[in-house]
Design brief:
This protein is an alpha/beta fold. It has 22 helices and 20 strands. The protein is globular, with a radius of gyration of 24 Å.
Length: about 575
């Protein structure tokens, strides 16, 4: 077989099962685009900003569980996509980013649109490559997919100089397709010790992280909780692994958890952490997190074990394999006293959701979204108050239903990620819940969504501010508000219509319930503009640097008196 390096890249991507790529062409990657044009197997989604392309790929990967691909050109194309790749690294999302680079003879000469992509991508990727010959592509492309999907997933970056793309290569056989490595099995003795600790515990809590989703271990985790009667908490990244209405569900832990959730963690004597990394937003002041608990920590990534909290029992293994072996040997256990105590905590320290029946209020709006979009809808968010209100109030039922930027906390994530999800799962309803501050960062991808005819609804909570910044300045900086309120804002409905969306402005609707029903019944992409009050706060909230038990429960300018 004889072909160019660019043709080889496209053929290898086809062999990996790639059928959609998001990206933007430029001088240094035009040979790749020419090869793409000559083989109409892969659909290309033309993003309007490279960061959007990266997040579209993330949305596809998060919704499907399969590695996704994005393209960028050299120089500013590569630097524009960096944030999306860094975001994928922190949330363990398998993405392969392929960028064009100036010809090798020009590398290091400050050529037009030259930047050291290999150097700047090194700390934000799981692995990266600067390809030096077309022959290397036969190894690098499959290897990139293997690395991205193996163990703890993550992004891989391949930088291909233009001369490599144009070079001609002859070869006889296709390389093996890159697939994830075999899962890491747990040590039998460690599983036995875990069983002993679970059986001995009187007040255990199951702590599920995003690794449960990446490891496809949701059914086993639910079985463990039910067999051993384990009250279960979720990190932000694992919402959906335990249905919110499950009797053992305690919801999200940490900074914006229900009071009863953090109080239960204060009392637990065993914390079973599966695929979780003890993030500071989950633990609060780590020295005071679960102060009476022994810890079992199971994770595929050995670097996470003991990094934040030293476990009593550390097990490096694929969480699916660990749970499978554990469930083969773990007897059923009733914990009536502990479960009854949890119910008392729920009654005495409930999660307050003011206005949950009123769609003009944040909680009520989120409840209405669940009703009209369906509890099975894919929900994407940006970052801020709307993100936390959604995490608290939406009734998640399954994994890969909830797409949000957890580790990097990237404003501008929501819309392009939702578009990626709509492309990957076209039969599902997809909703992007955003705030005006976040939405302004990647709103240009509305054009991309309209061109795709995506089944996508955007619910824009508009308080004309950077809401969570405004809230923290109110609570912790004596109301010294600076750079958190917008003096001017666009007409979002007019903006949406100009980009090919339908739009519904709840500010002008006398009956918001009827308006929401109508909006969600409209085909194709729709923006729903929902004004909210800037003084609304997302509570409870643990003060930065505080212990989880110090949560602020009530909206009160003298917040210290509202702490528990």
């Amino acid at each position: 077989m004889k072909m160019t390096g660019a043709d080889l890249v496209i053929r290898l991507l086809e062999r990996q099962g790639i059928r959609t790529i998001a990206g933007i062409p430029g001088g240094a990657n035009l040979p790749l685009y020419d090869a793409l044009a000559r083989r109409p197997v892969i659909q290309h989604v033309l993003a309007r900003h490279e960061q959007g392309a990266g997040f579209i790929a993330q949305g596809m990967a998060r919704a499907s569980g399969q590695t996704a691909v994005c393209f960028a050109t050299s120089g500013p194309g590569a630097t524009n996509i960096l944030t999306a790749i860094a975001d994928a690294k922190l949330d363990s999302i398998p993405v392969v980013c392929i960028s064009g680079q100036v010809p090798q003879a020009l590398i290091g000469t400050d050529a037009f649109q030259e930047v050291d992509v290999f150097g700047i991508s090194l700390p934000i990727t799981k692995h990266n490559y600067l390809v030096q010959s077309a022959e290397e592509l036969l190894t690098i492309i499959p290897e990139a997919f293997r690395i991205a999907a193996s163990g703890r997933p993550g992004p891989v970056w391949i930088d291909i100089p233009k001369d490599v793309q144009n070079a001609t290569i002859e070869f006889e056989d296709w390389p093996e397709i890159g697939i994830a490595e075999a899962p890491i099995e747990p040590e039998s003795a460690a599983v036995a010790q875990a069983i002993e600790m679970i059986e001995a515990a009187e007040k255990p809590i199951l702590y599920l992280g995003g690794g449960i989703i990446h490891g496809e271990a949701t059914p086993q985790a639910r079985t463990l909780a039910e067999r051993s009667h384990l009250p279960t908490v979720n990190t932000l990244m694992s919402l959906g692994t335990m249905p919110t209405d499950h009797p053992l569900a305690l919801g999200m832990l940490g900074m914006h958890a229900a009071p009863y959730t953090n109080m239960a963690l204060e009392e637990c004597d065993l914390l079973i952490a599966l695929g979780a990394r003890f993030d500071d937003r989950a633990t609060g002041k780590v020295a005071e997190f679960c102060p009476h608990a022994k810890v079992i920590h199971v994770d595929i990534d050995s670097s996470e074990i003991g990094k934040i909290r030293q476990p009593t029992l550390a097990i490096r293994a694929d969480v699916d394999r660990f749970l499978t072996e554990l469930l083969e040997r773990l007897p059923a256990r009733s914990r009536s006293a502990w479960i009854e105590h949890i119910e008392i905590l729920k009654r005495e320290h409930p999660m307050a959701m003011p206005g949950e029946d009123d769609p003009t209020q944040p909680y009520g709006l989120i409840r209405a979204i669940a009703q009209y979009a369906g509890r099975d809808a894919i929900i994407s968010t940006d970052v801020g108050q709307h993100q936390m209100w959604t995490a608290q109030a939406f009734p998640f039922e399954r994994p890969r239903q909830w797409l949000t930027s957890g580790g990097l906390g990237t404003m501008g994530f929501g819309l392009p990620a939702a578009l990626g999800a709509a492309i990957a799962e076209p039969e599902r309803n997809v909703v992007c819940i955003s705030g005006d501050g976040s939405f302004l960062m990647n709103n240009q991808e509305m054009i991309t969504a309209a061109e795709a005819g995506a089944n996508l609804k955007i619910v824009l909570m508009n308080n004309q501010s950077l809401g969570l910044v405004h809230q923290q300045q109110t609570l912790f900086f004596e109301k010294r508000l600076i750079a958190s309120k917008f003096q001017n804002g666009p007409d979002f409905c007019m903006m949406a219509r100009s980009m090919g969306f339908d739009a519904v402005d709840l500010a002008n609707e006398p009956d918001q319930e009827t308006a929401l029903v109508r909006a969600f019944a409209l085909p194709g992409p729709v923006l729903i503009h929902a004004p909210i009050c800037v003084e609304q706060q997302v509570l409870p909230m643990v003060p930065p640097g505080g212990a989880n038990r110090e949560m602020i429960r009530h909206q009160d300018p003298l917040h210290a008196s509202a702490r528990t």
